[in-house]
Amino acid sequence: MALTPDDVVTKQFQHVRFKDGFDPDEVDDFLDEIVIEWRKALEENVELKAKLAAFESGEAAAPAAPVAEAPAPVVEAPAAEPAPSGSATATAGIIELAQRLHDEHVAEGEAKRAQLIADAEGEVTRIRTEAEAKQREESARLERERNTLEARITELRNFERDYRSQLRGYIEGQLRDLDEKSASTDSTPVSAIGL
What we know:
The chain is an all-alpha fold.
């Protein structure tokens, strides 16, 4: 029994329970593609048979002189070859279609892979650019903060130096006053102080 496109369309498969299987929608879509291509192949086959029949009938009407010039076995050899059966042609067409679909899917997958790689590289470049900009911004902020802190430290050191000078001057002044008072009290007798 020869397989027809309608056989493919109407084929029912058993559902498998408790096991992984193919996605039925994907299988149906693929079979629909096969049927379309198969019908095209069958139509093309019919057209080619019609052209062959027309060619053979046109050759039969041609004068016999060119045929007589050619060796007889050579002329008969192509006619003697058995024409492929309809199922063999259909099988070859299906195999060719499957190979073409496979090649298309592989090419599509490679294109998608290339696109994903290009997108990822673009994303990497964008993220790297953003990170570098943030790093420059953070470095500038930290540099400004460091400069501010260094200025504050210098200010505090100056304040400390001035404060120490003033404190030293004050303490030295107090010590001089104390020395002067003790020198003036040394000349005064203890009885005058009231001890």
